[in-house]
Amino acid sequence: MKFLQSLGIIGIILVTSFIPKQVLAGYKLTPSLTISTQSRKASGALGTVRNSSNNVDYIGCGVFNSGNSVLIKCTARNSATLVTCLGSGPALLPVVQSLNSDSYLSFSWDELGQCTSISVSNFSSYEPKLP
After folding, report:
1. End-to-end alpha carbon distance in the chain
2. What's the pLDDT tens digit per position in 56-83?
3. 29 near 127, Cβ under 8 Å?
4. pLDDT tens track for 84-125
5. 23: Cα separation from own chain's centroid
6. Long-range contacts of 33-40, Cβ-Cβ distance < 8 Å, separation of 24 or more
7. Residue 20 has what pLDDT?
8. Neighbour tally for 100: CB within 10 Å
9. Domain locations in the chain?
10. What is the DSSP letter of 126?
């Protein structure tokens, strides 16, 4: 009986040693920063953008309270372009508040620089921000 148990354990070890490490580690995405002034859209995973090899790229949103109103500002920058949009209203606030350092952020704006959409995704596949 012990012999059969040993064979089973050895079989499991052999089978798992041939499975690629990516399969065991989980699915990973590293969406880098993308800015399109033509389509008025910026996007990227905060961890991937922060971990990039350059010291220029960034993306994010902030919430500012000016007494009676709340202002939302989303910004993205790469070596060629800096874009910002401003927004307000109760629909955008919970979306921006769900943003964390490992989120994927996408935002778009109109010709006046007003945020027309803000999207936040939180998935385990996004690269975490390194120290």
Report:
1. 51
2. 999 999 999 988 889 999 999 999 999 9
3. yes
4. 999 998 899 999 999 999 999 999 999 999 999 999 999 999
5. 21
6. 33/57, 33/58, 33/59, 33/76, 33/78, 35/76, 35/77, 35/78, 35/81, 35/83, 37/81, 37/83, 39/108, 40/108, 40/109, 40/110, 40/111, 40/116
7. 52
8. 13
9. 26-121
10. B
